[in-house]
Amino acid sequence: MEFFRAKKAFNLMGLVKPIFTFSLIVTLISFYLIFHKGFVYGIDFAGGTVVQVKYDKPVQIDALREKLKNTPFASAGIQEFGSSSEIILRLQNTTADVTKDTAQQVSTALKGTGNFEIRRVDMVGPKVGKELQTQGIIALLVSVIGILIYVAFRFEWRYGVAAIIALVHDVVITAGMVSLFNVEFDLTVLAALLTILGFSINDTIVIFDRIRETIRDTKDASRYSLADIINESVTNTLSRTILTVATVFFVILTLFLFGGEIIHGFSFAMLIGVIFGAYSSIFVASPFLIWFGYDVAKAKAAHADKARRHAEKEKMRAQFEQGIV
Fold first, then answer.
1. Angstrom distance (rounded) from CA 76 to CA 293
2. Number of Cβ within a 10 Å radius of residue 111
3. What does the DSSP 8-state code read for residue 13?
4. What is the DSSP string of 143-209?
């Protein structure tokens, strides 16, 4: 059966150079931001105490800073939390009795600033924060290595390496945008990065699987270049990719706009990761198959040999069941 359709496929590989150049520039900028500018670490990684205070009416941040000048919380970071009547105090120090001492001390320090209630007090020690950083890095590395092994086993090493390059591209750019926009890097952002790995590799595998099917089902695959086969395969999966990405994007956008401050970092990272993860499968992972020298004729021969060995096994099994051998 001739797999190629009469309808002409989109020449997506013809757009690789400008788009890949753009990705390369953004990736290099992201590396610079990550290693030079760094992140605004949340309490999960930096350690310290976070106190959430709810007022019955809007308050002025400058007035609160002035009020805390002559208290133990003079160096506390203050920011709005979802609305002008709710604030977060970030304290570098921690206390042994978080739920009692810190809440009482903050209440005393803010006395006279209006009617308020202490809604939340969270504390993470510096040692625990450092351990969470290490464990987060290990989780990312283990995920990447596991994906590399899976893809290389299911396809071959060229597919595996191409997929990992695309994943690194997605994670680095997402982390770079988190750094650029000073989004607090906490456990929810780390969860988003791990989610992006799964989302991106899923789309990449769908495209790789279609490339393999196109090579297998085309009668004379050697007549076509790998770029032609990739164009055909991506065109066939493009509607699926667009629908999946659009669905996820609008869900994440809703969370970003209306989900509140608690999941702001997660939804922001996911928005960036979904966008870059969608096109990296096409314009980053797929071109690397060409640059790695993936041979269509050899792949077609390997598929034919595998099909021949499978047919021989089935024939021998049928003969055995019939008592011929």
1. 57
2. 10
3. G
4. HHHHHHHHHHHHS-HHHHHHHHHHHHHHHHHHHHHHHHTT-EESHHHHHHHHHHHHHHHHHHHHHHH
Distances (CA, A) of 42 to 89, 130, 236: 12, 12, 43
Structure tokens at 90: 């970030």
CATH numeric code, 48-123: 3.30.70.3400
Lowest-pLDDT range of 83-92, 165-174, 273-282:
83-92
What pTM does this model have? 0.77
Residue 188 and residue 46 in contact, taking contact as beta carbons nearer than 8 Å: no
C-alpha closest to that of 283 among 112, 179, 196, 165: 165
Type of residue at 35: F
Q: Which CATH architecture has domain 12-40+128-294?
A: Up-down Bundle (1.20)
User: 144 with 136: CB under 8 angstroms?
Assistant: no
Q: Are 73 and 89 in contact, with CB atoms under 8 Å apart?
A: yes
Enumerate the H helices of the chain as residue ranges.
Answer: 16-32, 43-46, 61-67, 103-109, 126-154, 157-180, 187-217, 226-258, 264-280, 286-291, 296-321
pLDDT in tens, 4-35: 554 577 888 888 889 989 999 999 999 999 99
Under 8 Å CB-to-CB from 99, ≥6 apart: which residues?
121
pLDDT in tens, 288-307: 988 888 877 777 776 667 76
Q: Which residue has the higher pLDDT, 2 or 235?
A: 235
In the chain, residues under CATH classification 3.30.70.3400 are 48-123
